[in-house]
Amino acid sequence: MTSAAAAPSPEGSKGNQFDSLPADAFKELFRGHPGGVAVITADDGTGPVALTATSVASVSADPPLLVFSVSALSSAAPVITNADTVVVHLLDADDLHLARLGATSGVDRFADRTAWTRLTTGEPVYNGVRAWVRCAVISRMDAGGSTVIAAHAIGASIERDIEPGQPGGALVYHNRTWHRLGEHSRLD
What predicted TM-score, i.e. pTM, was given to this entire model? Predict the structure, then answer.
């Protein structure tokens, strides 16, 4: 077990009166906390972008709201943070290739024109993913080096459901590695 002490906070640091845990210690904490994997796409009129995220979380079922964060370091950040709508692709283990594509820097994530299409409303959507949800962005909040986006679900498609005991299984990211959840990982 490792522990880290908070670093002293600099004088006048954005009104924050608390010390901060060092970034490396914070990353170490969350490496042990698995996250579901999604790819978020958008097009604000400047061309389609995509990124892989493990920060997607449902907030409310009625109204249907979700949140996710986008790092300012992502090349997709300007488009996603400016878009009025986004598509959140909820991936399973059969979509690992897409998770890797969205996480790879410096590649054209839309080069393969057979892998994606546009919804009638214009948003880019990848073909054959487990599920996707089209969302209207309702709020943005700067948070450190990221933007937290709240979005209202306005349309969805489920290509395949995750059935117990069947191949596939949820895709999660844990300790810098992709994992498949399924019956083999079930605890009773």
Answer: 0.86
